[in-house]
Amino acid sequence: MRPTTSYVVTTFLIILICCSSSCLAKKHSHHHKTKHTKKPAPPTARKQVLNVEVFGAKADGKSDNSQAFKKAWDKACNSLESIKILVPKGKVYYVKHVDFTGPCHSGISMEIQGTIKSFAKMYDTPKRLWIKFEDVRNMEVFGGGTIDGSGEVWWKNSCKIKKTKPCQSQSAPTALTFRNCSNLTLSNVRLLNAQQMHVIFQDCNDVEASKLVVEAPEHSPNTDGIHVTRTSNIKILDSQIRTGDDCVSIVNGSRNVDVRNIACGPGHGISIGSLGEDNTENYVSNVFVKGATFTGTTNGARIKTWQGGSGIARNIVFEDILMRNVHNPIIINQYYCDKNKKCEKEKSAVQVENVVFRNIRGTSASKVAINLNCSESVPCKNVVLQNVMLTAQQKGDKVEASCNHLALQTTKLNSLPSCSLNN
Fold first, then answer.
1. Looking at the annotation, which residues are catalytic?
2. How far is CA 99 from the centre of its chain?
3. pLDDT digits (tens, 9 = 90+) for 353-403
4. Taking the model in full, what pTM does it have?
5. What is the DSSP letter of 31?
């Protein structure tokens, strides 16, 4: 290693573990404050309220209310004044598919007090999106109500349930999608039984998602709780997520992602990735996960990449985490393969670097509590394990760590289990 490279690496490690965990925590706290100087919020002026029933919505258990919802949206979007759309409490409105599209002339809020529900049958939706908000600024969705995807019929027809069915046929829609939105708040909403993913933030900026309850059965396929792609400056806060897939998944093009106080389980954990599928070039940076609790999940803090990809996943921190009976509490898997056939060995890979696992404690349901399975051709760089204490869920059993292909300086401080870091 050249002197300059050694100096850079050493400097990085000093910064990461400087005095105590509080040093980096303060740094991240300052970082996120500067990235989120404008908190998403609706205008403070008194809003005109548009009740969807005025536009023809009927809570009769059979009517498709898509057009009524769209008419209410169009009126609000075209108004020069701040408008609130109301979905009344105690009623269920069936919707087949609806697009809420901007740009709009003023800020809009949607107060969902009742329930918006999908019909319990399979049908085509444009671009596999059930409810979509697109090209909207200064928007708030809230209200204590429910968005129910009625996903059971889709799950039982999934190729992950019916192994002989092609995975690209009859693909289930995402329940709630925000695309190209900014200064957005989603709060105090319950999301149930999505056909596939529950919420996607795509190409968005300045987002806060908080106080959400996301629920689907443990064995429901591909029902990620919150999925973040090509989105910057997003906070995911104070939420309960219980699904059949990742509680939170953060994929290509996402940066400055702050995830705090998430209760996850059942599910597949909080994941960076997957990245690099089909030889793609992917980038994720500046992800800070703090204060999560994982209960009975298949994974806890996870980074997953495919062989053959390229790009970088860097500056990722998992801190102050509690694991309860988690199968893979800490895992970096650069040989991820979610296909029915075996994935061939590839020479290229997404570079994983500058990763910290700090103040993580709890129990592992499997023998290997820490699994750092990095790429042989593109090893992980600068991985820090600090104050990690994991024991076996079953009393009397022991746990171990497995670490493969770690490059440059990788540090373990006061952590158990531990493994050799010289490979």
1. 245, 268
2. 22
3. 999 999 999 999 999 999 999 999 999 999 999 999 999 999 999 999 999
4. 0.88
5. H
